């Protein structure tokens, strides 16, 4: 059995995570570093002017070569590179982000070390979200692997590559739970589920930071973002108002952050959104009461890009000076991109509106991070033009990208075992706007990778089959616009083929920041293409390209086989071919529910029952359902097929009684009666039947990737303890109540699998 490797820490929530954070190495280091910075660093603080202190709290987009950051963020006032060098010399910035490579970093660091009065090393940050030059699947896709070990390995490689180019700090992982598929940024996280989110948060932090300490030249510091509840914006609109209860914050949106901190993430980023009227960037309850006092977080809080400036547009601060004061006093140590801290903190301190001690505290945290990263020992430890070339895109890294790609593909259906396809003797037509060319491969939020360096589907498929000449490719349609003559050409190609592979979906610009959609369907011109191509009547496999859950309707839904292929990165084509032709069996599961209709959003499997649930079966009057359909998913969270034939049997609930201080072993027999090997993601769900706070219809409590040969059967077991059944009670504190629980061991959040009951007593 391929066991998941989530540390004990990752499995803890709430108080458990606080305890873990207190015991974690990063916390110990940060606490130590801030309590007792090396004497030389303390001496620096004593010598710093207020301006120099504010400079340590000011982070700007790198200006080198025009600035990559501007391609990903709204253009805001940026300096030229020469002006930025002048800011380095005068100690007015702590570092830059999304810069370009070792040359730039060396020039800037040299200016800091030679020409700046106090010679405080600069910090180089970047959005390393899913790889550096080797691009891995989008985090949402990779979460579908239900394989935290894989996520740790890809994050490790991303860190090894990025650190060689001078990067010390990544603005990742994004650990926002995303329950509204209209929101475009779900693609940067791990989807809708709390437990999967925690497991991925843990893995990614460990991967980025490595196991040799943050001082290692291949470690990058992680930043758990965006704190907090950024994914809960009203109507799925990016940046929008969030108004959720404290209980929901604590139960749904906080745990992945707590896990990331417990795993050692020394930084977090305040989110753009407001929380019940108070923007996160100026929210003392969030940043001080909870984060610092309750959880004991000793690290650095950075604003998001111009997050402090945006307090004015929120209608929370009257002007830049007030925005600075509110954000800083609420607990934002470092300001990103607005330049507000360097402009206004000195005057606020001079006028006594910001205490010097508070300024020193923030500076200490930032310098402690620089100490931890080893920058005071050797400011150039991650800046190495030679390593920058040799550590990237190595054969081993690209191999991992291919493995991760194949492991992220979800098979939604496979009627008549159309898949896997034969490698020889068949003419294959690849049709759709995603089948060929150096485009739409790597996905959003990649500063350093490029589609030009990624492998497309046509190349991947031609590389897999016996006779590449039997594979043809035609676009048939644009992504949002029809292509003149496209459908005719596609129909001709389909008619001349034995098998059609139809790749349709979203462009990479349709998900990511500021890419909310009102309709999460496939654009109409591609539906028209699908209609015409499917009408030809050839066996057709649909490959979806997507950055979120999609609504799938006829005719696409009628295709016998559908694979979700997301944005898979550098090895997109070969990874997809591996699954299409069966070199690798599909093993990923949906990390987000695919609804019947956009109007169901925000839809997630762990919803409440309501007082009038519609039982499975026909839609009934006066029940919680829509006129047009059930309150359910078309393809549920956790769903995904394999090339095996998997059956669940023989649930054993270990006597059905769990003592408060004991454990309960829940087991089921999982059998592959098919003729092909399969890796099944076996999932454990529970429902607390009656509680003082209503509970979700199901909650994921465990998962295992289980490799099963043809004909093989295994007993899969999970251990449940009372701590796994805790929830946030009426007093907003964790509680656990005795009573009856339902339990499922099942292949998805909606499948019955095998199920039973037990009692917590
Ligand atoms: C995003 C952050 C990102 C930052 C820096 C912002 O627009 O919300 O996730 O880290 O830009 O690029």
In terms of topology, how is this protein built?
Elements: H1 14-23, H2 25-35, H3 39-47, H4 50-56, E1 58-61, H5 69-72, H6 81-89, E2 95-97, H7 101-115, E3 123-126, H8 139-143, H9 148-164, E4 169-170, H10 194-209, E5 223-227, H11 246-253, H12 255-262, E6 267-270, E7 274-275, E8 278-279, H13 284-294, E9 300-302, H14 310-314, H15 320-330, E10 335-336, H16 340-350, H17 356-372, H18 385-390, H19 395-407, E11 410-414, E12 428-431, H20 457-464, E13 471-474, H21 486-495, E14 499-505, H22 524-535, E15 540-545, E16 561-564, H23 572-580, E17 594-595, E18 633-635, E19 646-652, E20 657-658, E21 663-672, E22 678-688, E23 699-708, E24 713-721, E25 727-728, E26 734-735, E27 739-746, E28 754-760
Helix pairs in contact: 1-12, 2-17, 4-16, 4-17, 9-10, 9-19, 10-12, 15-16, 19-23, 20-23, 21-22
The structure holds beta-D-glucopyranose.
Note down, in words, how this protein is organized.
It contains 23 helices and 28 strands. The protein has 761 residues and is α/β, with parallel strands linked by helices. Among the domains are: 182 residues, Rossmann fold (3-Layer(aba) Sandwich), CATH 3.40.50.1700; 119 residues, Sandwich (Immunoglobulin-like), CATH 2.60.40.10. It starts with 13 loop residues before the first helix and ends with a strand. It binds beta-D-glucopyranose (BGC). The site of beta-D-glucopyranose has 10 residues, from α5.
């Amino acid at each position: 059995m391929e066991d998941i490797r989530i540390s004990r820490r990752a499995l803890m929530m709430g108080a458990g995570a606080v305890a873990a954070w207190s015991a974690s190495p990063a916390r110990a280091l940060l606490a130590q570093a801030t309590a007792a910075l090396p004497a030389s660093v303390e001496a620096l603080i004593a010598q710093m002017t207020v301006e120099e202190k504010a400079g340590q709290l000011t982070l700007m987009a790198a200006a080198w070569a025009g600035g990559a950051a501007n391609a990903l963020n709204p253009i805001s006032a940026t300096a030229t590179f020469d002006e930025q060098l002048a800011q380095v010399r005068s100690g007015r910035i702590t570092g830059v982000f999304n810069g370009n490579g070792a040359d730039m970093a060396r020039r800037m660091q040299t200016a800091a070390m030679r020409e700046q009065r106090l010679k405080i090393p600069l910090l180089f940050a970047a959005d390393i979200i899913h790889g550096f030059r080797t691009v891995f699947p989008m985090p949402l896709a990779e979460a579908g692997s239900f394989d935290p070990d894989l996520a740790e390995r890809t994050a490790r490689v991303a860190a090894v590559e990025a650190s060689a180019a001078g990067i010390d700090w990544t603005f990742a992982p994004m650990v926002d739970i995303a329950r509204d598929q209209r929101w475009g940024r779900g693609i940067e996280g791990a989807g809708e589920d709390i437990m999967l989110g925690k497991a991925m948060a843990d893995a990614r932090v460990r991967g980025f930071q490595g196991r040799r300490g943050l001082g290692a030249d291949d470690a990058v510091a992680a930043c758990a973002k965006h704190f907090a509840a950024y994914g809960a914006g009203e109507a799925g609109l990016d940046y929008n108002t969030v108004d959720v209860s404290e209980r929901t914050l604590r139960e749904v949106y906080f745990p992945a952050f707590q896990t990331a901190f417990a795993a050692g993430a020394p930084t977090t980023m305040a989110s753009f959104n407001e929380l019940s009227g108070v923007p996160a960037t100026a929210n003392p309850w969030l940043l001080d009461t909870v984060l610092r006092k309750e959880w004991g977080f000793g690290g650095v809080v950075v604003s998001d890009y111009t997050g402090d400036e945006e307090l004015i547009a929120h209608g929370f601060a009257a002007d830049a000076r007030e925005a600075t004061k509110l954000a800083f006093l609420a607990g934002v140590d470092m300001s990103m991109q607005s330049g507000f801290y360097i402009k206004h903190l000195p005057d606020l301190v001079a006028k006594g509106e910001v205490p010097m001690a508070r300024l020193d505290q923030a500076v200490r945290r930032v310098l402690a991070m620089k100490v931890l990263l080893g920058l005071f020992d050797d400011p150039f430890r991650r800046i190495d033009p030679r390593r920058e070339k040799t550590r990237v895109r190595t054969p081993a890294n690209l191999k991992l990208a291919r493995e991760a790609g194949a492991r992220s593909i979800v098979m939604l259906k496979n009627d008549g075992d159309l898949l896997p396809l034969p490698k020889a003797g068949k003419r294959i037509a690849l049709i759709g706007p995603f089948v060929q060319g150096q485009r739409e491969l790597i996905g959003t939020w990649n500063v350093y990778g490029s589609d030009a360096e990624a492998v497309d589907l046509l190349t991947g498929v031609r590389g897999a089959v016996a006779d590449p000449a039997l594979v043809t490719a035609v676009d048939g349609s644009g992504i949002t616009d029809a292509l003149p003559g496209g459908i005719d050409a596609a129909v001709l190609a389909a008619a001349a083929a034995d098998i059609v592979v139809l790749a349709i979906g979203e462009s990479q610009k349709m998900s990511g920041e500021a890419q909310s959609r009102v309709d999460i369907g496939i654009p109409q011109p591609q539906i028209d293409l699908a209609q015409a191509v499917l009408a030809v009547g050839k066996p057709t496999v649909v490959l979806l390209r997507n950055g979120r859950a999609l609504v799938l309707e006829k005719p696409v839904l009628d295709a016998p086989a559908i694979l979700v292929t997301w944005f898979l990165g550098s090895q997109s084509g070969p990874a997809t071919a591996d699954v299409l032709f069966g070199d690798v069996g599909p093993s990923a599961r949906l990390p987000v529910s695919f609804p019947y209709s956009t109007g169901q959003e925000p839809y997630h499997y762990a919803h409440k029952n309501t007082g009038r649930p519609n039982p499975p079966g026909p839609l009934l009057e006066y029940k919680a359902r829509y006129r047009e359909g059930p309150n359910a998913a078309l393809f549920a969270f956790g769903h995904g097929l394999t090339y095996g034939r998997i059956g669940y049997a023989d649930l054993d609930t270990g006597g059905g009684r769990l003592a408060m201080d004991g454990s309960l072993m829940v087991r089921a027999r999982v059998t592959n009666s098919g003729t092909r090997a399969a890796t099944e993601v076996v999932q454990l769900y529970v429902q607390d039947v009656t509680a003082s706070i209503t509970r979700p219809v199901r909650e994921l409590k465990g998962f295992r990737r289980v490799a099963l040969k043809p004909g093989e059967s295994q007993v899969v077991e999970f251990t449940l303890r009372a701590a796994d059944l805790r929830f946030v009670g009426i007093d907003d504190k964790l509680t656990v109540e005795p009573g009856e629980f339902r339990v499922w061991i099942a292949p998805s959040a909606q499948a019955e699998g095998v199920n039973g009951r037990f009692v917590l007593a």
